[in-house]
Specification:
mainly alpha; 0% strand; single chain
């Protein structure tokens, strides 16, 4: 059952899992930090801003769940990816309305194509050996969330982190054959780009 990989689920229908507390604490800390690091100008002035934050909380919960199941099962299930995509789409539509800007949606769609195209290329070149199609689906939602500029940054950070992890595995195990779940990498990439991406881009310029 995939339910066991969702933080807080155990409080209602599941027995305790040894890593549940870590997941739940991580979610709470990240959500609280999100409030103080909120990247949008104006902060929380109207009800729509708070609705946007609630949507972000749901997005974060699903992303942590995806990272958890990917880390333990080496797969990214559609059961999590499709709701994640729906929440991200709703988030961007609401953001566009609040900012009265169609450019938000245009940038989001371009970001989708950039990040999705990157993973499709890897999938095709490796014939599915380096990443699975769950990664491809998830990357589309990540690109939609981040937009085109942060999407480019996400591709760069994802590639660097993945290469670094496999290099460390190679050094430690003298082999490239160890399997690594990419969900946690996507989680780190999204958090870095969402909260610090604009500052990173400004620094690089």
């Amino acid at each position: 059952m995939l339910d066991e990989y969702v933080p807080f689920k155990r409080h209602f229908i599941l027995p305790k899992k040894k890593n549940s507390f870590v997941l739940e604490l991580g979610y709470i800390v990240t959500l609280v930090a999100s409030y103080f690091l909120w990247p949008f100008e104006g902060g929380f002035e109207v009800i729509g801003d708070y609705l946007l934050f609630v949507l972000w909380g749901c997005i974060l919960l699903l992303l942590i769940s995806i990272a958890n199941v990917s880390n333990r099962k080496y797969l990214i299930p559609n059961l999590f990816v499709y709701p994640f995509f729906g929440l991200v789409a709703t988030f961007k539509i609401l953001q566009s309305v609040l900012e009265s800007s169609v450019q938000v949606l245009v940038g989001a769609l371009i970001g989708l194509l950039i990040v999705w195209g990157f993973t499709v290329l890897i999938y095709v070149v490796s014939k599915g050996k380096w990443i699975g199609y769950g990664n491809v689906r998830l990357s589309a939602a990540v690109g939609l969330l981040l937009g085109w500029q942060l999407g480019l940054l996400a591709v760069l950070i994802f590639a660097l982190l993945t290469a670094l992890i496999y290099l460390l595995i190679r050094i430690k195990n003298k082999s490239w054959s160890m399997q690594v779940g990419s969900g946690p990498i996507w989680l780190v990439v999204v958090l870095i780009c969402f909260f610090f991406g604009e500052k990173i881009l400004s620094f690089l310029k």
